[in-house]
Structures are given as C-alpha cells and as structure tokens.
Fold this sequence. Notes:
- Helix content is 28%, strand content 22%.
- It contains 24 helices and 34 strands.
Amino acid sequence: MSGPAAPAPLTESQPAAPRLPASPWRVAVPLPVPAYDFAPPHGWDLTDPADSGPMPRLAPLGCRVLVPWRGELVVGLVVGEGDAWGAHRLRETVHVLDDPSTPWVTPATAQAITAWAADAHLPAGLVWCDLLGVGWEAAYAHRVRAVPGASLTAFGSRVPGNEWQDAVAFAPALLDAIREQGLLDEVFAPLGRTRTVLTARPLSEVPPAARQVTVLRAVSPRPATLTPKQLAACEWLSAHEPQPSLSAWARGAGVSSGVATGALNAGGAVLLTELADPPPSWAWLREHGPAESLSAWATGASLSGTPLSLTQAGTLAARGWAAQVQVPAPPPAVPAPAPLMPGAADPDRLPEALVWRLHGGRAAARFRVLAPRIWRLLAQGRGVLVIAPEHATLRLAWEGLSGLAADAGTQAAQLSGQLSDVQREHTWGQIRLGEARLVIGSYLALTAPVADLALVVVLEEGSDAYKLPSGSRAFVPDLAVRVAATQDAALALVGSVPAVESMPHPGAVLPPPRLRLHVVDYARPPEQPEMGPLSSVHLTPGDLGYPLSHDLSRVLRQVQERGRQAVLVAPRRGYSALLRCPGCEHTPQCRNCDVALRFHQETRRLTCHQCGYHEVIPDRCDGCGERFWKARGPGTEWIAQEVGKLLPGFPVYRLDKDRQDDLAALQGGEPGVLVGTQLLLSQPAPPNLALIGVTLADTWLNVSDFRASERYHRLLRQLAEWHPERAPMLVVQTFQADHPALRVLAEGRDALAYPAAEERVRQELFYPPHARLAQIEVTAREAKKAMLAAQELADALFGAGASAQEVLGPAPSPVARLRGVYPYHLMLRARSDSRLSQLLTVLDSRTWKARVRVDVHPRGGL
DNA sequence: AGCACGCCGACT
DNA sequence: GTCGGCGTGCTC
C-alpha cells in the first residue's frame, strides 16, 4: 500500500529477510457471533521496523481494526491469534486503526474477556459488544484508487480510477468486490472531532456582489434646469452624500419624493454603484468571532451595541460576509475530581493478598481506609480501576476517591453511561495515553486500558446490578477477577456487606454503623383475624395494622409532629400486586406471561411487569360477572395513599420506575415522607431522615432463588448505612421476625456474621462458592417442545459423564410462560470452573430442537 | 444482530 | 398466478 497518508503501522516495505507468515488474527466484531479469523493486512508480516529476525510480527492484540463484513467495513477488536492457516481462504484485515504501542484495550484484558466468553460458551462478539462501550464508531477519512496498472472496467463503469478518490463515492459492496480481488489501494486517516463555527470572511474573499451598493450622489455643477426645491435638495445631498435611496434622500432633505425624483431626472444627482463599507456586524465578527451559530452572532453583536437581528445575520451570511468553517472541537467537560482528602498517605493496613475484601462501616469510612492503598499504588506510577454497580455507588466512590489522583501525580477519570459518547471517548483517550491512572466507573470501565494496572476494586460485589441484562448476561465481578488475574493486579472487594462468594478470601471488616431497629412481627398478632374494610381485608393479621402497622404509624406521626423526614420502602411499584374477584377468586392474568397483572390505580390499568402488556381494568369479573375487585399486595401507590390518609397535609413524595417526584425540597431538608421501591437507594438519603420503614420485608424472601436471603440482608445493611452520619430508626414489618438475615442486625453483629453463616449452609447444599453454577435456558413457543429439548440436553449431559449431583432439572421456569414462550431450565453444578466448562461442551456437540442459552453464574429467579 | 433463502396461506 | 409470514443458516 502506498499513498500520501499511509496508515500508521505500515511503512514502505524494506528488502525483507526470509520470514514466516504471520498467523491469522482473531477479530471480535460487535455482533452476537464468534470472533472470526482474518489475515493480517497486506504487507504486515514484511514490515516490522523494530525487528529484523525471521519472526512474523505479532498480532496487534487489543487494537481496533477495520475488517470486511458482509460487503462493508466494520470495526473489530483483535482478541487473539487465529488457528494456523486452514483450508478456509481468509479475508484480509483492511486497516489497523490503533497504534499497537497504545492499543484500544490492554492486550491482557482482551485475552481475559475472550477467554471468559469461551468458558461461558458465549460468542466473543456478544460479550465484547456488551462490555466495550466506546470505540466501535471510528471516524476516518477513506480514500481509494485502483492498484496502479490494474483495470477495474470489469466491475462496472463507475469504479475507482488511478487518482485517489473519497470512498463514499462508491457503493461499499462494489469496493469490497474489488478489494477481494486485491485490486484496490486504500488509505485511511483518523478524523478528529470538529464543530462548525461562523467566521468573518476576509474582505478579499467576500463576493463583489455582496459588497456593491447603489448610492445617490450630487452632481456639480448643478444643471441650470433645476427648480428651487430641486436645487435645495441637491445642496443638501452634496453635504450628506452618499444616500442609499431616493426616499432616504427626500426624507433627509425635507422634500417630497417627487422633488427628489425630479432632481435625479434633471441630472442634479446620479445613481452610482459603489463598493460599500463592510457592515459593522461583520467587523464585530472579525474582532470577536468565531461565533457558534447565527443566533450567537446576532445576540453577541447586539449585546455589544451593534444591532443585528437573526434574519439580518442570515442575510449577511448568505451573501458571503460570513463563512462556516470546521474547527477542532475542544475537549468535552468531564467530571471534576473531588478535593483531596486528608489522610491519603496514612499507613496502609489492608491485606496484601491477591484477592481481599473490605466491608462494613459506611461508604465514606471504607473509602478512608482504602485511600492509602490506592494513593500508594498511584504514587508508584501504577494504575487503579474502581468499578461500581450503579450510579449512586459510583457517585460516592468519585466523591471519596477521585481526589487522590492529583496528589499522587496523575488524573482521575470517570467512565459510565451517565457521560455522553464524546465524553467517554475523550476519557478513554486519556486513559490509553497513561494520563489518567485512576479510573472510576461502571462496568463500562472494566475494559479500560489502564496503564500498569495494580489493583481492581469491585464495589458492592454482591449487587445484582452487576448482572448485565443484555445478551451476554455477564456478571461483572466474574470478569473483573479475570481481568485482574491476567495482569497480575490485586482484586479488592469493597462494600457494605460481602457476597457469600467473597467469604473465603482474607479481609478486613469495619464496625457496623449505629442502628436503631424495630421489628413489627405480623406473625404474632392476637388470635382471631378480623375482617376489615375493603383495602385491608384478608392480609390483615389481627389488629397490628396493615399495610402500615400501628407501630409504624405512630412513628410516622412523630415524624410529622417534629417536622422530620421519613422514607418507606415498598416491595413493588403500582397499587397492588394483583386484583382478585371476591366472588370467584379469579385474578386477571397477562396474555403473554403466566403472571398476575399488576394494578396501577393512577393510570387505571392492569400491567404486566414482565412484558409490559397492559389493559384497562375490566368492568366486571370474566368468571362470575362480579363488579368489584379486591386489591392484594400493596405497592408504592397504595402505601403513599395510606400515608396521605394517616398524615393529612404532610407532603408525600414517590420514587419508582413509574414516577420520580422532584425531591429538591426533601433534599433541602423540608419535612415529608418519601415512598418508593429499592430505586430509593440510588438517591442520596434525605438530610433530615428520622425513619426508614420496610413495609413488607417478606417479599424479598419469597423469591425462588438461593440468594434471596442474602439479597434481603444486603438491602437491610444498605438501608442502615444509607444516611452518611445519622442512624435513622429502621422499622421492618415482616411475618418472619426471626429470620437470621434480620436478626444479625438486631443483635448488632458485623457485616461478616450473616454471609459467614450462609456460606456454611451453602457448603452443605453444594452451592456457590462451593460449586460453580450455569443455567441452561431452553425456550420454545410450545411448552412440550422446550421440555423435550431440555430433557434431551439432560440425557446428553448424563451420557457425557455428568453426575446426578451436577445436573438439576429440567424444570419449567418459575414463570412458566414469558412473552409468549416457554422457558425450561437446566442447572449445572460443578466443583470447578474447568469442570463446568467441560460439561458445557456438550452444548456444542450437536444442534437442539429449541433455542438454547447459557447463563454462567445465574442470579435472580426471574 | 441482520440478511438471505425457502416453504406454505390470503389476495391484486 | 403473486405477496408475505417467520424458521433456518451464515457471516472470516
């Protein structure tokens, strides 16, 4: 390849020593397909400036490349070396986008993620598409020509010639056909980010037509034929010339326009075409410009005393006084680091193990303990990556840690979906060039090319938010383990409470935050359940009060009296979990899924929380024609309504997926009650918080998932440390007041108590961390088809030597029908990752009669 | 994922 | 006679 702008890694070929051919490259494209092999670009193995021996150049691992894909060029990531050249004739990589000395992704990370994808039996492209959030959209100028001496007439009439031409002039498929024959020369040049601005065009470049004006000037000597009035007008004109128009002249001279016309016709004045003075707004733009837009020009000029309307600005620009030019865009604004905390250089008392944990206390306290370690590593010139599961944790981490970077001689960079694409791209560049060595972000930061990575911190490693909802269903902490291990970096698990899986690692624990806990035990009411009014019938066990117990109501009234703040956590959004006919017990169901429809009172709708299907509330019961419904299982709407009845006149706010009230007053310290779902924890705690109520804790336990109680315990711990200083009263209403996940809090035990107990249970039951799980999901439109395919799969597994302990199921999904399909689940349970991967190879042994999907390390029932 | 190919029901 | 449903297969 040659040309004016040869791409970075390619130089003119030198007289080559005998060389082995380079291996193919394995390239992941952002599609749910495996990584495919491509040949290196033409000439790649001939031209390594750094090396003269008979070795092929290595694959540019972690670099982005352009590869031909279905007749077009797509961005791919080099994730490994391909198999030795097989029978398949490989297409060539067209271009390497990144300089191999600063790859887009750290080569070790590229391998770690790809290896995980292989172990999970997922296509590499699917995993990379999920995890690499920035870089797939490369902006480049692309020019083509025919290879010198080649004739492209066989490809048609509109084909590249011998001169370089912009590739957009040709159909991608045509170019690819020529490319495949080796007859296309191509050059690529990266395009920087630009913006369009308005500048004042230099006078010499303003079109002459724009500058010319017709003006009136007096003629001297004055013709003798002028009337007295015409003469006076001409005298005035000679003192005030040039005049732009007859009417302006007449007005100025104080005569009628007839007199002026007459004077002109009599030869007392002439119309001349002259070069005008540039308009003042042009001069303004030349001095103060460039302007971002027409309106910016108009307002800017007007503000500094040069009146300019938007239409005038438009006219001037159209006539050529201003030009639109592309200028390099300035770097986007990125989040500012927090001020430096004191104590960063304090002694570091944290474990030195390869994997360790730090839990308990409050977030700020954990970051204070963590800071000396991070500071030390940064000061040594190494890199640190901090991963948070959601925005609230990310914000706290940024506040608590980002200040360390400046003091340790580097920068902190934030990477999350909160930022714009442009911001993320800019930040990625800073990280890639080693300018920012402290990276704090969401899962999108996991593949960031952090220089000399020494430590990966996973915050709240047990959080379900780490389970990616999209195709790969990856659990981010699993990948963080791999990323850290391949780079010999340590892994720290830091959060309010350790995941049960973290317990085997060494660690530190901070004392639990102060807690005032009150448990309302619904299971121990006086005998004789008593029938109440409609909204509080069956579920009311005795007279404890439902859904707000008398105890909770009493504290809520105190909150109102004292002008404080309270938060109520409801287990679901909407008004109620379901509607039931009091006559025949019929419950409206979703038409696509086997679940009851949720009742939303505000929209008067029944909605499926699985698939989004909704309908208006039926007038009468399908089964018996009854006209009234009974609501069961209170949600946020119901709770908020009860609070409104209990505390008349007291502000009630709501926060869930359906409704996000403006919480400015509450965050400013004004009194009120906030009712919401778990989404509440994504907000800072209101400053005057005196009470947190959990309206029905049992909902977190009634989930068919072995992690349900762990999740419930984590929720309680997070609520307990939510407020950064205070210890609000935590009121938990439950039918299971003796549940150990709750009891350890009541007993003031530390963050390890419950996970440690749970780990012992898991050991007996052969569950994580003592086993590795993978769920195989088999789905089909007919239940029987899915069931039979799942059974065949199970038989194949047993045939391949799986034991009865290793294969659980198949069983229908907890929701038997979802979005119109029937999922069946098969759980694999192995001693080790390698055994699990070995069992999973059975999936690839043949094709199955239903859709099969693997979820390694599944979490959550639904 | 997208896009082709391919085989069976309701219509200009 | 065709248009169009989505099942299956392929992408280096």
